[in-house]
From TrEMBL:
The entry's keywords: 4Fe-4S, Iron, Iron-sulfur, Metal-binding
Keyword match Iron: yes
Boundaries of every 4Fe-4S His(Cys)3-ligated-type domain copy: 78-117
Record protein name field: [FeFe] hydrogenase, group A
Family to which this protein belongs: Belongs to the complex I 75 kDa subunit family.
Organism: Variovorax ureilyticus
2Fe-2S ferredoxin-type domain location: 1-78
Keyword Transmembrane helix: no
Domain called 4Fe-4S ferredoxin-type: residue spans: 143-162, 187-216
Lineage: Bacteria, Pseudomonadati, Pseudomonadota, Betaproteobacteria, Burkholderiales
Amino acid sequence: MVKLTVNGRSVELNNGVTLLDAARAAGVHIATLCYHPRLPPHAVCRMCLVEVQGQAHPQPACVTRANDGDVVETDCRALRDSSRANAEWLLARHPNDCIRCEVNGSCQLQDLVNENQWQERWPRLPLGSAEHPEHGLVDHTSPSIWRDLAKCVECGLCADACGDPGQQQHVIGFAGRGPDRLPVTVFDQPLAETACISCGQCTLVCPVGALIETPHWHEVLHTLDARRRVCAVQVAPATRVAISEEFGLKPGTVSTGRMINALRQLGFDYVFDSNFGADLTIMEEGTELLSRVGGKRSLPLFTSCCPAWVNWVEIQRPELLAHLSTSKSPQQMHGALTKRGPFAGTLGPAFAEGSDEPYVVSVMPCTAKKDEAVRPGMSDDIDHVLTTRELARMIRARGIAFGALPEDGSFDDPLGESTGAGQIFGASGGVMEAIARAISHLIGADHSPPIEWQELRGVNEGIKTAEIDGIGRVAVCNGIAAAQRLLQTATWRDEYVAIEVMACVGGCLGGGGEPKSLDPHILEKRMHAIYAIDQNAPRRRSFENEAVQQLYATELQAPNSPAARHLLHTSYAA
Ligand code: HC1
Ligand code: SF4
């Protein structure tokens, strides 16, 4: 243990902690820009400098180990002057563009300016200068990720997140030195021309607005406000938990009802559940798996509901495309049914002339879902995709007091019915567990497999495996780097019959469109909430979804029928 004082407050902590940990334990706030608890520290922003008695110079708290007996000061004129000088250096080069910046209100640089009343030190752009003077720093080529390097504070977190042990993509790296140091792509190509898989992990750690999700929320608000079309929205399993964090509720708070009420207040006519699509995916993908096992072809089957993983296979290993399940993701299945399924004609008043389909939006924890929605072969199933963060922006823009909303909101039927198996899609291992719960039913066997598959759960293990009666051994890759490792083994083709891959560590609950969080245990907290929803669900296996049963009893006839393949399956291109 080490015992030290921070601003005169005594704290006792385990060996190995930093002065930043010690300050936080003492309740002392230290501002940071380049620090993220899940990534290695850089100490480049110099915002967290502290004085340690006996040391000649101030030390960066994020990388300095706390020693027994340290006397630490964070609050003195010299330190304030030094952070102000560092901030001035950043602000001199940062566009004064907050009013139209996508992260306005959730920007750490803006917080720093506000906390310290440094507004006057932010240079004003000349009147009428709407565009940045810098040229070539704005990149809007990706359907999922926007870059504006004029806003970059060179913290390095994006490059770390992209090359993190869980991702290992290395699409972004640092070039230049000193004031020209910037995170760029290989050969400075536009993002759309790189190997970027749109996972959005870089947007999740960017402390400012230099890397953001391609914004769709302005168009969505515009369409809602126009009241011209019937507007339907579906919400993904991981979003109903994480949205709570945007409004100061405790991480892990389940906000399904509040979220539904907020969406209705925003003007959506129908609020549906992506979990319905997830249950349907299990019926289609499970049946597809059984038919591949029977025909001994294209095994192991790769799950395909994570679009960043699909992107990775297309870009890096196109020879493996045949392994991807052709079943669309829950988002796309749900969108196809909302637009063109048997219920589409029942969704309310006649559509305005020229808009004979409902306007369909999804709320996803994922940036790559924007990319998925515009893939060839998806037949415009979805008009716009909002991340969890964008939905929070819309709610704030309309002045809806989210935390005060009643929790009683419920989904519209029939595309709002779901089981716990659909809900666990939001956590790494959830798709495979949902398959495990359903497979013996799909085979027609009379025994029931266990509901809970602990060996497939967890946000910390890279590769998880289990044996499923009736089909064989399956694997779950938690993060795209784990999939790369598995595919480097000599035995993956023979060892597994099915492999789930989620590109983001933790699965969708760790997706690049989720709220930004500096809580090192955020993934576990979200995960526990997701499994709690499943545990409390009256039905926990996808084939028990009565609306799905009804769909097969009428229009779709059976999983993988020609009608189902037409609406619910897709293809991939190298
Ligand atoms: Fe996911 Fe999925 S679980 S991919 O992680 O299969 O994004 O939450 O919506 O489509 O249902 C994401 C989450 C999500 C799909 C489902
Ligand atoms: Fe890297 Fe993912 Fe960001 Fe693309 S979206 S640059 S792959 S972290």
